[in-house]
Design brief:
The complex is a heterodimer of chains A (144) and B (186).
Chain A lengths: L1 H21 L14 H8 E4 L4 H14 L3 E6 L4 E8 L2 E12 L3 E10 L2 E2 L3 H15 L4 E2 L2
Antiparallel strand pairs in A: 1-5, 1-7, 2-3, 3-4, 4-5, 5-6
Chain B lengths: L2 H19 L15 H8 E4 L4 H14 L3 E6 L4 E9 L3 H16 L11 E14 L6 E13 L4 E6 L3 H19 L3
Helix pairs in contact in B: 3-5
The chains are: A alpha+beta (144), B alpha+beta (186).
């Protein structure tokens, strides 16, 4: 019986090590992301066929408001909008930047954070761009 | 009880706990418009018969100050003003109920501290956007409120988006007055 008990404790210890090492957070993770830089950009960015930056930014703001965000900061020159909302007990913060791309297009990039985690899930961003498309009456185009 | 099974059970419980506290990932779909967002948009928006964007934005800043908010940030080119205020969140009913519960459990011989879980203070955040309507003849003003509530032991007890029609009603009533006052240069 004693042997069996020891066996369980060893197993428990092993599981502890495994589950703790899964979420290691060294200081270098402050600048780290799970996806590659290129991949992340393509997930978070879409191009729109318009050059009206002001209208684009105001539509971004109104879309974020539709999604329950409270807008905290915005800067027209930089093209950035930052807002936050609550999802359950977690805070979601998102910043969106709008900038010129060539002569005829605007690039919109969104990046969101859920609690202490950066959101890198393509579908989540797709949800946002779908909502943005609807309010903008334009199609969001994937950028390579 | 059979001893090996007892250990096995303990092991599973411990493992489950570790699994749960492990890596929390974001749930899907939190950037999808939730149900009833169109009604909320309507509740949060009013139109004003003017095309003067600057006048509206300064009236908005004025009304936020009237309501005791401090301005955090603004961008006139986009018609944005964001503000926040700290406020009392105590409710007499809630405290009375908690004290009664504490007294009852004291009489019953056990310890409880419901009073510490009562709401104490809150921060209310507001952001207002003024933008021209689609036909360009009116200004649309949209406001959203959010609040964070702390309890008596200074822990965050609640975070929420405020959806009470009364609050929005009050804001827009004050805004109408503010626009009138600014037009009259008072």
């Amino acid at each position: 019986m004693r042997k069996l008990r020891n066996y369980f404790f060893v197993l428990l210890g092993l599981c502890l090590v495994v589950s703790l090492s899964g979420c290691a957070t060294p200081a270098s993770s402050a600048l780290g992301t799970e996806e590659s830089q290129v991949q992340l950009r393509s997930i978070q960015t879409r191009a729109f066929d318009t050059t009206d930056k002001k209208k684009m930014m105001q539509t971004v703001i109104s879309t974020m408001q539709d999604l329950d965000f409270v807008i905290e900061k915005a800067d027209f020159t930089l093209g950035s909008v930052t807002g936050s909302k609550f999802a359950g007990y977690e805070t979601v913060t998102m910043s969106v930047t709008v900038r010129q791309r060539g002569e005829k297009q605007l690039l919109v990039r969104a990046n969101a954070q859920y609690g202490v985690k950066s959101v890198e899930d393509p579908l989540t961003y797709q949800d946002f761009f779908t909502a943005l498309e609807k309010s903008m009456f334009l199609t969001a185009q994937q950028v390579d | 009880m059979n001893k090996p099974f007892y250990y096995l059970k303990q092991f599973f419980v411990a493992f489950l706990c570790l699994g749960i506290i492990g890596c929390v990932s974001a749930p899907a779909g939190f950037l999808k418009p939730s149900e009833g967002y169109l009604e909320r948009r309507q509740l949060q928006t009013r139109q004003y018969d003017t095309t003067n964007e600057e006048q509206i934005v300064s009236a908005v800043a004025g009304v936020l100050q009237d309501l005791g908010f401090t301005l955090d940030d603004s961008e006139t080119k986009l018609g944005l003003v964001s503000a926040s205020k700290k406020a009392d969140a105590t409710s007499k009913g809630q405290i009375a109920g908690a004290v009664l519960l504490d007294m009852l459990s004291a009489v019953g011989g056990s310890y409880s501290n419901n009073t510490a879980r009562c709401d104490k203070s809150q921060i209310i955040k507001a952001s207002v956007i003024a933008r021209p309507s689609l036909d360009g003849k009116k200004m649309m003003v949209r406001v959203t409120f959010q609040r964070i509530v702390w309890n008596m032991s200074n822990q965050i007890s609640r975070v929420e988006t405020i959806n009470e029609p009364l609050m929005y009603q009050k804001f827009f009533d004050s805004l109408s007055k503010s626009i009138f006052l600014e037009a009259q240069k008072i």
